[in-house]
Amino acid sequence: MFDLRAKADALIAKTGLEQINILQGAFMDMFLPGHGAIDLDAGSVGFYGDGDKPIEVTTVEDTAAMTARVALDRSVRAGKFAFAGDRISFRQAGEIIARQTGRAIKPVSYGTEADLRAAKAKADPKKQVMLAYLLYMTNGQTALTDLQNDRYPDIRLHRFSDYIMDAMPELAHA
């Protein structure tokens, strides 16, 4: 997938068309129970490494709002346009969800970066893409810089703790 994207970028560059690459980090949904990192039944948050490395996360809705605004803004220069609702580690996500739900969430490391690379090498091609994203997020290779979160003051990007409160109201404890 990364090779295909590089080839597409090269072909687009040859046309002379300007392009804006929207970068927003991971979707916050990946921390919702049943979507990967958090297992409420097991009471765990899973990750590779130590789980302390912050990654950029954004909601799907905030990504859509920012993308629409950028698409209509003729003053945005070609190239990278990065934003993120929050920077949060896997451990922090587990702690926030534990507070929201009143359930204990235990951090569980699946191994080192080398273990993640080995799992990626053994996986089917579709899963390899997802594991590559996870690898580059958790080792900081794709960390976002020069965030433009404040470019449009009327768009308030969700912080992770606010998102979880909205996304999981049925699990909130008193």
Describe this structure in words.
This protein is 41% helix and 16% strand. The mean pLDDT is 89. Strands 2-5-7 form a three-stranded mixed beta sheet. Strands 3-4-8 form a three-stranded mixed beta sheet, with helices on one face. Strands 1-6 form a two-stranded parallel sheet. The protein has helices at residues 2-15, 60-72, 90-101, 113-122, 125-138, 160-167, and strands at residues 20-23, 26-27, 38-39, 44-47, 55-58, 79-82, 86-88, 106-109. It contains six helices and eight strands. The chain is an alpha/beta fold and 174 residues long. The radius of gyration is 18 Å and the shape is globular. The chain has a single domain (2-6, 21-166), classed as NAD(P)-binding Rossmann-like Domain (Rossmann fold, 3-Layer(aba) Sandwich).
How large is the radius of gyration? 18 Å
The H-and-E topology, N to C, reads as HEEEEEHEEHEHHH
**What is the CATH class designation?**
Alpha Beta
- According to DSSP, the number of beta strands is 8
Supply the number of structural domains: 1
**What is the strand content?**
15-25%
CATH topology: Rossmann fold
Oligomer: single chain
Number of helices: 6
> What number is the mean pLDDT?
89
Overall geometry comes to globular
Summarize this entry quickly.
This protein has 174 residues and is α/β, with parallel strands linked by helices.
